[in-house]
């Protein structure tokens, strides 16, 4: 009988355009569209910034030494035009009015400082809020530094290694998989927690508050079927909807990575492929399932209690923030899965998924997180059952 | 048959409800000491003004809510001890009955047939009978949300009767319906009587009661004010018409009845 109720509720839910949008369409499309737009827009900004002729104003370059060196910088670093300004105030005005994009301030005693082999302080003036300007100044600065260093070494008759006694290197012993897990692993649980919650929300409200509001619940409760069976049949649809929304969001992300060149780096793509094993996917869904049951078990009592769709929505929507905020913990470095964090709902799933991506999750912790979430899911089901049994909640 | 004895129902009032009702009492009594019997093949009417306790009484009979105390028997089954068994015998229809707008009539009727455990052979037979009787063939596969009020009412009737219940409960079944749609309900109630079913319906319209019922109970503020046959009611009348008599009974103190 539970399956019969589930079948009917699923059919009813799948015919609801609003639920379909939040369960299937938005999760599948949100990542390909937003990420694609983001990547394309930033790429076009970067391209236009690198192709744009950079007008560089220069003050104090009496010997035209730096102007010449700047002109020698290869065109690959972007086209440029040198303009001479009389003082720093003039240079600043030029930046503010966008007459020039970069300003270089050379001290008037530059020749003396150079001759006495002292450090010559050069200053860039720029508007850092404009894309690409700071990067261009850094690149030009590095070229000028290289010219000056080579000249100074030649004057002193030294080889570069004579003034660079140490060469310090770092070798990262973490696997690529672990690095991806650490840097991007927090993103994955955030997605399925956010979409799992949203996916549960509309069916929970529709199947409980909506049914009460439309006057169909009273009739349904007169049939010779136990209330717990009716509750479980409906709850299964809410859980399926949450799971489907989370799955669709992950599919959307996968499409973005595979077909929209989100991970343009081949090594990164290889790491992602090595992470996506059947065991990983099964383990991830094993963590997701009790979490979504927990979500639906929290939402259903509210949906049963609420007298109207609007009231239910106004209570559950802020709850979304409370539930999804802990998911952001995944983005913070240094917070790890341990005996304490295992018992914090939502946070434990985030941290376990992060370790799952990195391939460092022990079966003990996996079992603990799964067990804790199953216990919470059972408590949430119990709470739903208690609310569904209350006469005052089910009848208007 | 429906037999109820000393039925009592109280509700705990929330702070908000106490404020709305302008009372300090923490408990509200909806029904007190209600006893009557509805016989098969007869139409029993529960008459009372708004807020008299009619819907609460019918919901208790339909096992939707449990009484605070008292006994309810449906065809000899103790509805408090075996509510699911009692529900198998009951068909329940209200004037405010909603239907699943995104489903078709055939999907709703099949769903309820499954919930009532109607076997396939019986289901097809009942569907055939009800669809013909109510002239439903033209809209069986249309979404309910697109149907007219009259069509929806027919679907509700069909859903209520699909398991051929021997006890049918109507809670203000014609409330909010136009005369033509209400006529379908009147026909259904009469047809139930002809088939020997036990019928109980609530109303606050005396003319509707006069048209249909054999037995009558008048309740006011949860208390029984009259219980007898319709002919007894007419014989004992102290006013010139039924509506005036109903008002007199409702407004009279218990000792004056």
Give a short overview:
The complex is a heterodimer of chains A (396) and B (257). Chain A has 396 residues and is mainly α.
**Strand tally of chain A, please?**
4
Number of strands of chain B: 10
| Average pLDDT number of chain A | 85
Oligomeric status:
heterodimer
Radius of gyration of chain B using CA atoms only: 19 Å
Count of spatially separate domains of chain A: 2
Percent range for helical residues of chain A?
55-70%
CATH class of the largest domain in chain B: Alpha Beta
The greatest interface between two protein chains, and residues involved on each side, is: A-B, 23 and 30 residues
Could you state the order of secondary-structure elements of chain A as H and E? HHEHEHEHEHHHHHHHHHHH
Q: Which strand order does the major sheet of chain B show?
A: 6-7-8-3-9-10
Give the topology, please.
The complex is a heterodimer of chains A (396) and B (257).
Chain A lengths: L1 H13 L2 H35 L2 E6 L5 H8 L7 E5 L3 H9 L5 E4 L4 H6 L7 E4 L6 H24 L19 H9 L2 H28 L2 H4 L6 H33 L6 H10 L2 H28 L3 H16 L22 H12 L4 H27 L1 H4 L2
Helix pairs in contact in A: 1-10, 2-8, 2-10, 7-14, 8-10, 8-12, 8-13, 8-14, 10-12, 12-13, 12-14, 12-15
Chain B lengths: L1 E11 L2 H7 L5 E12 L4 E5 L6 H8 L7 E6 L2 E2 L4 H5 L2 E5 L10 H11 L4 H15 L14 H13 L5 E5 L7 H16 L3 E6 L2 H7 L2 E6 L2 E7 H7 L5 H10 L6
Parallel strand pairs in B: 3-8, 3-9, 6-7, 7-8
Antiparallel strand pairs in B: 1-2, 1-4, 4-5, 9-10
Helix pairs in contact in B: 4-6, 6-7
Q: Explain this structure to me?
A:
The complex is a heterodimer of chains A (396) and B (257). Chain A has 16 helices and four strands. Chain A folds into two domains: 53-162, 3-Layer(aba) Sandwich (D-Maltodextrin-Binding Protein, domain 2), CATH 3.40.190; 176-394, no CATH class. Chain A has a four-stranded mixed beta sheet, sandwiched between helices. The two termini of chain A are 26 Å apart. Chain A has 396 residues and is mainly alpha-helical. In chain A, strand 1, helix 3 and strand 2 (80-84) form a beta-alpha-beta unit. The model of chain A has no long low-confidence stretch (mean pLDDT 85). By secondary structure, chain B is an alpha/beta fold. Chain B has two domains: 2-86 and 169-256, 3-Layer(aba) Sandwich (Rossmann fold), CATH 3.40.50.300; 90-164, no CATH class. Chain B is built from ten helices and ten strands. A six-stranded mixed beta sheet of chain B has the order 6-7-8-3-9-10, with helices on both faces. In chain B, strands 2-1-4-5 form a four-stranded antiparallel beta sheet. In chain B, strand 4 (69-74) and strand 5 (77-78) form a beta hairpin. Chain B is globular. Chain A binds chain B through residues 1, 4-5, 8, 11-12, 15-16, 214-216, 218-226, 391-392, 395, and chain B through 11, 59, 62-66, 84-85, 87-88, 90, 92, 94, 96-103, 107, 111-112, 114-117, 159.
């Amino acid at each position: 009988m539970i399956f019969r109720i589930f079948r009917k509720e699923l059919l009813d839910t799948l015919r609801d355009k609003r639920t379909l949008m939040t369960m299937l369409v938005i999760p599948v499309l949100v990542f390909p569209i937003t990420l694609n737009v983001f990547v394309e827009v930033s790429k076009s900004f970067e391209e236009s910034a690198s192709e744009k002729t950079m007008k560089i104003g220069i003050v104090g370059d009496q010997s035209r030494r730096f102007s010449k060196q700047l002109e020698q910088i290869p065109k690959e670093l972007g086209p440029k035009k040198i303009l001479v300004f009389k003082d720093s105030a003039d240079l600043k005005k030029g930046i503010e009015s966008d007459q020039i994009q970069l300003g270089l301030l050379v001290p008037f005693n530059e020749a003396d400082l150079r001759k006495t082999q002292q450090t010559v302080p050069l200053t860039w003036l720029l508007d850092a809020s404009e894309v690409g300007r700071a990067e261009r100044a850094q690149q030009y600065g590095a070229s000028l530094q290289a010219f000056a260093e080579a000249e100074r070494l030649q004057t002193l008759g030294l080889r570069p290694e004579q003034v660079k006694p140490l060469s310090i290197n770092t070798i990262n012993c973490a696997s690529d998989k672990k690095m991806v897990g650490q840097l991007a692993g927090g993103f994955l649980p955030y997605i399925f927690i956010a979409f799992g919650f949203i996916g549960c929300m509309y069916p929970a409200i529709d199947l409980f508050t909506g049914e009460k509001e439309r006057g169909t619940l009273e009739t349904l409760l007169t049939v010779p079927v136990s209330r717990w069976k009716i509750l479980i049949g409906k709850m299964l649809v809410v859980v399926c909807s949450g799971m489907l929304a989370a799955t669709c969001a992950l599919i959307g992300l996968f499409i973005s990575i595979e077909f929209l060149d989100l991970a343009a780096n081949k090594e990164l793509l290889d790491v992602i492929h090595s992470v996506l094993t059947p065991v990983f996917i099964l383990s991830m869904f094993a963590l997701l399932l009790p979490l979504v049951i927990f979500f639906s078990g929290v939402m259903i009592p509210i949906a049963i209690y609420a007298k109207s769709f609007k009231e239910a929505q106004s209570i559950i929507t802020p709850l979304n923030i409370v539930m999804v905020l802990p998911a952001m913990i995944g983005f913070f470095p240094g917070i790890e899965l341990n005996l304490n964090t295992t018992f914090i709902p939502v946070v434990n799933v985030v941290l376990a998924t992060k370790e799952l991506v990195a391939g460092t999750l022990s079966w003990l912790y996996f079992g603990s997180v799964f067990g804790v979430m199953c216990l919470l899911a059972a408590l949430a089901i119990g709470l739903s059952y208690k609310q569904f049994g209350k006469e005052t909640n089910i009848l208007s | 048959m429906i037999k109820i004895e000393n039925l009592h129902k109280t509700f705990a009032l929330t702070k908000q409800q106490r404020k709305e009702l302008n009372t300090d009492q923490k408990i509200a009594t909806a029904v007190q000491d209600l006893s009557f019997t509805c016989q098969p093949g007869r139409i029993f009417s529960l008459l009372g003004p708004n807020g008299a306790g009619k819907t609460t009484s019918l919901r208790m009979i339909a096992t939707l809510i449990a009484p605070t105390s008292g006994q309810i028997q449906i065809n000899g089954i103790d509805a408090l001890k075996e509510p699911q068994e009692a529900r198998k015998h009951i068909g329940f229809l209200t004037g405010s009955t909603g239907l699943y707008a995104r489903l078709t009539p055939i999907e709703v009727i099949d769903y309820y047939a499954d919930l009532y455990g109607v076997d396939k052979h019986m289901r097809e037979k009942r569907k055939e009978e009800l669809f013909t009787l109510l002239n439903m063939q033209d809209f069986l596969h249309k979404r309910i949300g697109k149907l007219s009020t009259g069509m929806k009412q027919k679907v509700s009737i069909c859903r209520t009767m699909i398991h051929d219940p021997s006890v049918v409960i109507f809670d203000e079944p014609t409330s909010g319906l136009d005369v033509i749609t209400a006529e379908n309900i009147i026909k259904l109630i009469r047809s139930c009587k002809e088939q020997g079913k036990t019928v109980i319906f609530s109303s606050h319209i005396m003319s509707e009661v006069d048209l249909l019922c054999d037995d009558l109970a008048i309740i006011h503020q949860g208390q029984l004010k009259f219980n007898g046959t319709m002919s007894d009611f007419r014989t004992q009348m102290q006013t010139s018409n039924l509506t005036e008599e109903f008002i007199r009974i409702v407004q009279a103190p218990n000792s004056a009845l």
